[in-house]
Each structure stands twice: as structure tokens, then as C-alpha cells.
Amino acid sequence: MEVHDNNTMDVMLLLLKASLQEAEPCLEQDADWQELFAVARQHGVVTLLYDAILRLPPERQPQGDMALSWALSAERTRHHFAHQAEVLHTLAQRSKEAGLPMLVLKGMDLARLYPVPDSRACGDIDVYFFERYAEGNALLGDASATLDGKHSEVRVDGVPVENHLTFLDQDYRSQRRAEQYIVSTLPQATPDTEGVYHLAPMGAMVYLLMHTVSHLTGKYKMPLRNVLDWGLFLDAHRAELPPRECRQVVRRLGMSDAFAALTSLAIDFTGRDLQQYVARRVDPDGLGRLRSLILKKDYLPHVPEELPFFDQLTLRIQRYRSRHWLYRYLPASRAERIENTLRQQWRRVVR
Q1: What does the DSSP 8-state code read for residue 148?
Q2: What is the reported pLDDT for 3?
Q3: How many CA atoms does the CB half-sphere of 107 hold within 13 Å?
Q4: I need a labelling partner for 272 at 20 to 30 A (CA). Which of 62, 90, 137, 232 fits?
Q5: 230-268: per-residue pLDDT in tens?
Q6: Domains in the chain, please, with CATH?
Q7: Are the C-beta atoms of 130 and 101 separated by less than 8 Å?
């Protein structure tokens, strides 16, 4: 991963905040637009930044070929989003005609919280058919779709649609408890004007927290975009998400550190005032490391599954030792994670 200077990162965050606040950016010096474009592409936020750039005086905006690169990239994001929205509209009609309620998750659900929804790049569409998973696959067009982890994937008009059997992976107790909580809120899920359902705010809060932190579980990465989603979500649902109740729920899940750290990062990256959700002290060293990990995308190398048992185990132990500080934010105790790793390794040996 190429390392970029802190000034570029600071400019990116400044432009992001201006974009989310629909304000003119206050750039104290001219930006290196080529360097910034490279960083923005890596984080999938080119279009969000471009919205802010267009509010700058014309002479301070990118010029020439660089201006074209920004504009074309933003247009591709919007075109892709429009196609996904069409596919989602088609699926909404199918589900209504079939009497099969469909709930949408993640990107296409959260994009509506952004000032310009189609500026939020989305990779796929995630849906849930209220415990009618098999019927959902058939509605998507592939009744025999293979379950991979918590969902199957079916391409609909070129767009990957992930049909969830469960909301979360079920590897750890906290994930299973969170799944039970989310399912308990399904009666409060509400449909929009097209008949597409959305999780009730408390259920969505638990889902987003667990899903976002899951990016740190196996691959040690958390996309910047997911932190923006979290901040905009909390800000948009303040009335339905009393801070005290949120903290009580995440405490029962053992996710208090993750909740506080993720919210602190969201305050930093979005500029939203969410301090009322951060009641516990956040370790400044851990938060700084987490911030750097996200912005610099300093991920650990993948452990090849084809390695012999003890070689794999050795590499996993080395990974743990190099990032031991990170485990306080993950959905499991250290002992449970070690136990789960040994179980997975043993299954590979038995096969």
C-alpha cells in the first residue's frame, strides 16, 4: 500500500466534511489534486470529494486533464448507482407482486442519508427476505444459489445482489446475541414508498456496529466509507436512538469499546456532533492507531489457506501479536477467538 503524506489525508477529511455539510471548503493552500485523486479512489470517496470541490472558486479547482479525471470518475459512480437503483426498484416490484417482503441493508439503505445519495459509491445490493431465504433466491432468479457464509449472491442485470440468510456471521457469542436482538426488532421494520423495508433504528444500530467492526475481525481493515455511514446514521436517527439505551444494548453485547471508538472516529471524519454517544473514555493511543489503520489502509497480509496446519497457526499467532491492541474492539474475547481459530484449523486438517 502506497503511503501518502498527512497533508493529503487532512485535505481529504476537510473536503469530506464540507461535502457532508454542503458547505464551501476552507482550503488554506492549494491541494495536490493528483495525489488526492489517488487517495480518494483507494477509499471510494471520489464523488463525495468532488461535490465539495465544485463549491470551490473555479480557479482553485483541478484544471485540465485532472479536472476531467475527477468529473469522469464521479459520473461513473452516479451512473453505477442509478443502475443499482433501477435494479432495486425492479426487485421491489417483484417482491410486492410475490407477497414476499424484502428488506434492504448497508449501502443502498444508507445512501439515502447522504446530502447527494448517488455520491455514496455502492458495490452491491444486500437484501433480507424475513426468514424466507430460499424463496428470496428464487425471486432473485436463482433458486439454487449457493450459500457462502451468511448470504448467497445472485447477479440481477449485472448487479451482485446478496441475499442474507442471517444478518451477521455466527462465529462468536456476541454475534449470535446481536443476531437475536436484530431479529427481535423485525416487527418494527417499516416499508418505504416503494414497499422496500428498512430495519428499525435500534436494530439497524446493532447491525451497523457489528457489521462495521466485522471488517476488522478477519482482514484487519475498516473502510473509511463505513465510518462515514455510522456517523450519518447516528446523526439522522438521534430521536430514535437515545444514547443511554444504545450504550446499554452494546454493553450487553460486549461492544462498548468498539461503539465508543467508532463514534469518536465518526465525529472526526464527518464533523457531526455525536459526543453524547461517547460516555466512556476512549483510549487515545488505540484510537490513533485505529485512525491510522483506516486512513493508510495498513492491512496485514492474508494467511494462505493452503499452508500446512502449523505454518498457518504460526502466521496467525504472529498476526495477533502484531495487532494485539486491536482485539479490544472485536466481537469476541481473546480466548474465544483462539478457540475458534484452532477449530477452523482442525477442520481443514480433517478434510
Answers
A1: B
A2: 42
A3: 20
A4: 62
A5: 999 999 999 999 999 999 999 999 999 999 999 999 999
A6: 1-62 (no CATH), 78-165 (3.30.460.40)
A7: yes
